[in-house]
Structures are given as structure tokens and as C-alpha cells.
Amino acid sequence: MTKMKWAAMMVAVLAGAWTATPAAAGSAMKTGARTTQPVGHYELCQAKPDECGVRSAKRAPVELTRSLWSEIIAVNDDVNAEVAPRTDMEMWGRQEVWSYPSGQGDCEDYALEKRRRLIALGVPAGDLLMTVVRQPNGDGHAVLTVRTSLGDFVLDNLEGRVAAWEETPYTYLKRQSERNSGVWVKIIDDRAEAVASLR
Predict the structure, then answer these.
(1) Which of 4, 74, 77, 187 is the most buried (most CB within 10 A)?
(2) 145 DSSP β-pair partners
(3) What topology does CATH give the domain 24-198?
(4) 127-142 mean pLDDT
């Protein structure tokens, strides 16, 4: 985060412009080359081509206003409360089925629903990115990354608080491209020491 962005956020906070603020301003993830698309996302794209056909011009991330922050918190809380956790094996009898939840779902289903609701509220699809991470125990997991002017934040079904990505205990592997919803890119997660200290 630049000094100017940090100063602007502090001025807003001190002026009482925010009723709820991020716990901390964050930074943007560094991304690299194109990488493999998760099989579940590929199958979702085949079933719902519109889901993966969004093209976005290169532009700055969405401005994180007080109103948008409140909407992000509300969507995260609502979906986490409304969806009961169930594995793909329990629901479908196989692994890696990405779908919108109907009362129940696993991690990527929570993230897809949050993405859908935030798009409906006007957040650009290029700022709402499905993201694959590794948990501290080695298990794979999916979260939703929201790109904002104050950094990248993570909406997670395992954690009620929306957090800056670098404050989470995950190792970040890959996410949707901000310019093409059907393309995935590597995440350059150079926080190995910071992640280890959170475990």
C-alpha cells in the first residue's frame, strides 16, 4: 500500500467517514503467468458459459467506500449463515463439483454465491476472483478475493471476519484472472515466513 493510500484511509477514519473499517489496510496480491484452471471451475464453465466469459479491461481496483465495505461484510455474513457446510462427496458422490449452493455447499460454493451477490450489487466481476489456497494442514481450500483500492480482501466460509489476504494463514496458489473470468493465474505468495508465524 502506498503512503498516499494509507494516509487517505487514516484521514477518512479520523474524520468519522467510516462506520466500519477493515481491520487493516492490505496490499494487492502479486500474480504471475497463466496456470491450470481447477477442474471444478472448468466444468462449471461448460455448464454455465456466462460464468466464465467475462472480459475486463485493465483498470484500477474498485474503490473501497464505507458503503461497499458494509455490503461486503453483509454478504459474507449472510452466505456463511445461510449455507450449511457439506462436502462434494456428501452432496454429489464425487470430488470437485463447483455449484451455487442451495442451502448447503462446500468452500467453493460459498465463494461462488458471495461472488454472485456482490456482482448483483454492482461490484465488477474483475474485482471478485475465485481463489485456491492451501490451509496450514495441507488441505486445499477456496475463498473469494475482492480487489479494492485498499488492497485485496478475502471472504472465507471458515472465518467470519473479512481479512486482508496477507493476514490469513493460507498459502495462496492461484486465482481467476482479473481480465478474463475463464482464465487462472498463479499467485506469487512470498509470505512464507509470515505464514509460518501464523501457524
Answers:
(1) 187
(2) 129, 154
(3) C8orf32 fold (3.10.620)
(4) 97
